[in-house]
Specification:
By secondary structure, the protein is mostly helical. About 50% of the residues lie in helices and about 5% in strands. It has 50 helices and 14 strands. A four-stranded antiparallel β-sheet has the order 10-9-12-13, with no helix packed on it. Helix 32 runs antiparallel to helix 34 and helix 43 runs parallel beside helix 45. It starts with a helix and ends with a helix. About 40% of the residues are buried. This is Anaphase-promoting complex subunit 1. One of its GO terms (molecular function) is molecular adaptor activity. One of its GO terms (cellular component) is anaphase-promoting complex. InterPro entries: Apc1, Apc1_3rd, APC1_C, Apc1_MidN, ARM-like, Proteasome/cyclosome_rpt.
Amino acid sequence: DLQLEEYVDLYWRDYPSLISCFTESCIIDQAVIGQMQRPSFLSSAPPCVFNWLSSCLRGEERPPFPYLPGICHRTELLVLSYALYIIGDERATSTNVSKYLFRLSAGHKSCANEPNFRRQSSVKVRFSSEILAELLVDWLSSQGFTLKDLESVPFGVALPIREAIYKCREQPSSNWPEEVCLLIGRQDLTKQAHKMTLAKSKASVGSGFSLVPPSSTEADEEEDGMSDIIHEVTGLIWNQDLRVQEVRRLLQSSRPVRVSVVQLPEVSDHEYIEEKENKLLQLCQRTMALPVGRGLFTLFSYHPVPTEPLPVPKLNLTGRAPPRNTMVDLNSGNIDVPPNMTNWPSFHNGVAAGLKITPASQVDSAWIAYNKPKSPELANEYAGFLMALGLNGHLTKLATLNIHDYLTKGHEMTSIGLLLGVSSAKLGTMDMSITRLLSIHIPALLPPTSTELDVPHNVQVAAVIGIGLVYQGTGHRHNAEVLLSEIGRPPGPEMEYCTDRESYSLAAGLALGMVCLGHGSNLIGMTDLNVPEQLYQYMVGGHRRAQAGANRERHKSPSYQIKEGDTINVDVTCPGATLALAMIYLKTNNRSIADWLKPPDTWFLLDFIKPEFLLLRTLARCIIMWDEILPNTEWVKSNIPQIMRGNFDPSEDINMDTMAQAQDYITAGACMALGLRFAGSANSDAFDCLYEFARTFMKMMSFAGTAAVGAMGYYNLQTCLSMILLAMSMVMAGTGNLKVLQLCRFFHKRTGGEMNYGFHMAHHMALGLLFLGGGRYTVSSSNSAIAALLCALYPHFPAHSTDNRYHLQALRHLAVLAAEPRLLVPVDVDSLKPCYALLEVTYKATKWYNQTTVELMAPTLLPELHLLKQVKVKGPRYWELTLDLSKETQHLKSILIRDGVLYVKLRAGQLPYKDDPQGWKSLLATTANHRNSGVTAFRPEAISTFTSEPALISFAEFFCKTSEGLKSREDSLVLFSAMLYECVTQECPEMLPTYIAIEQAVGALRQGDLQQTFPLWQLRLVVELWDSRMLRGPANKHDTLLTSEFLPVMKNAVDVALDNWLKDHSSVLRSYMRSEVLSGDARAVMLAGFLVYRSIPCFKNPNTHLEGCSSFADLLSRSSHLGIPLRDMLRLVPILLSSASGSQSLLYPLQAFSS
């Protein structure tokens, strides 16, 4: 009626069986039609989205496609997807939408019948197909487009989107949101993204998968306190031996020790009992030192139940004597036992139990109070428990009222644990409430008119360290000034500050170093304090400066016990001042300050310095000159002064004891600096260097009674060896190195003699660091971590369990502040079990080495993240995943903090490394996993090797296996098997419906059973996408998801079927071109299919007539103007040029092109 012939033709092509003819009479008068005003969106050429998408694939210019907002949403998505991915316009979905879509709205005024489309000619940056694929997938997910939506899109239209999804699946970004991961079908990334989303939201603890140890009975938990180590992970890390069980055996303190004493004939029974109890007392020195190491070993491994108290293992100080296994106890009264011997070990036991709690646990003030023991004997354990809660960040949840209650009880241990705990929890925050809390316990921070409080000395030491922790790295002037003066605090007034002065001065020095940590010479506002000069004076001695300000009156009254005069007592002030200088100038490479710390270069001056101070000076000098530390023996020996390395003049009066001790302590200090420099790096050169020195000291100790040991002294040798052992443990922290474990076990077995409580503590701290957090943690080398390690590993260990003279024992636990989670644990997303996966770790280039790449087998400890450029899960067994650290490290940090779980997905036909370490079992599947091979050898029964999806297994069962009823369709079985093989081996099972749809469309066309032209539209889009890839070059043929064998075969089958139909029914095509009436039979359906597939335009428009062309050149010119592809145009030549000579002359080029 409206004489819109092209619209009628379009509808007939879509539904040829419904629309039978074109020549029905017009009911509306022509004059009325002329007076009708057409809407603006009604163009003369009917809009066809398939035609528009086809033009995109062929690279042709097209006007914007009209759409109705809110109604044609799917059309809008598809058009913009093609514009973005096929055309390559990265702004198609943002600023250039109007170039591809024409918005239809009511009342729109028409300026012309055709939309004004003018292609902008500008220089464009061609994005790679991978970047365009990422942009497309990201945009589709932001529009709420899902895989379910994609299944409803016709297979030909959806193929480019599936191609983009497959590319993103191969090379995904690790920090994509959950919606994108769902769209690309990466379950591992989806699980990871879901876990991150829960963590960022107000989600409950324990949502998603986490590495939780298997449930154990209450008896097991009370047994040794180490049952929470995740054996699934440790079994993968150390799969060749039982070293974790050995560590548990060494660190357990809940069972009686074995007391083996042989009764000699001349020894009476009473004396024999005393011998056994003396032996037990020696063994108890070791047992009491175990909790410090156990706290490091079980660090952050326990998720407490809010309704149950925290299980604390017993500190069993009894023994069993063979052969009758009789009980040996220290409470019998036969021998003298030191008073309060178990106070500090109980405190350490409480800390070790509390450190098990993970930082992400559900801990509140009520639960903390709920764990308070009713028995006063357990108060020390609870004090340690409070400190541990501060170290893992939970003490901030303790109510202020509860803190007040604990402090007013006046229990010394509780005050120490609470003050250090809250300070650690508020590290570097300058929190005023905590500052007020600490200041009450430090007389120097109180006004001179304040009431004097009777604060125990150890509590003051803890409060001073607390100030350093709360103000770490802030450079706070007032606190720095007070702490500087407290390093040299004189004894007095009267009876005060007369005992254990060394620990207070050391604490003030450590706290000052933490306040000004790493500031170097940039101490803003402290120029008048002359901090470096004052510290140097504390270090070398000199005349004491007068007390300034409020402290002047306080120290007017002299001490009644100690007379020091006006000179500085360097035995008290030197350690704190030395470490304060080291921490202030940490990593600054300030040579002038470092030269202050050089050991003396004359024998005379060397006699005036304690060997221990030489260790501290060497350590301080080396960590100031951080960049000069080298992991070799030559560098360590270079720290020894020249006078000790050369030949000695016999005429000189040289004290060999002094030289031997100085040389060994300097060596130990350099080794300690080496351990700090390479802490947590597992650097093989550093370890080999330290191990060589450890063996040297071991050989010296093995010659007991010789001149070397006599000159050096057992205590000094053991001190140096312990520091080297700790340095090795820092370097290999978390790795469980077997050589260090053997050394720790060797020292564990040595008891009695001069092997005192402090040495046992050092050795078991080394063991705890070696297996830090059960292998999940290692040590950082950041400034804050170095400060914590200097506090915790101070090279003077207590002589007995009540010794706090030189160093407060509670500070040993500050090593936890240096712990850093760096264990990456691959977890199979299907089985949710930890597994092995190959990682490719790329280091950034530094001044020491170029950019380099190493391969690691995870689970593994990663290097420090600031050193890395990229971490990649490498194939071929698992889907690749890249964590790009050059952009940002927060994503990987969040993974490591949350158990280090990285979800991975096993590829088709591959076996896990645990089941197939060498890849031999997967070799057949891997060989057949390449295209163009293995299809013929594929057996449907082997489908379970490649996939576990029920739909694919059922397809193989019913469509790929030969049966009695399907023997006649052997070709179809082979084809279906090839389709299934391709889909499962290339990890794209979603392509199987596309393969089947193509095969069904081609089969219907072959049999002449075509019911509609829709399948041919989709085939045309598939072929045009393939052709567009081939135009870019043969290398791009693998960009398509369809195999290089399948599509050409199908395309050839369509061409043969249509050519045969054209040969037999050319008259039908001529009738259509002459606008004659067509019958509604099967010939019309095939004609419509032919026109659609061959891209032939509507001939109702006079401008589209092709008949009457006088030459082949004229025909080609007109056909190119109409957008008919050359390949399809050549097939029409015999019909369009009706003369026999013309047809004969064009037969050769047609055959040549077709071949």
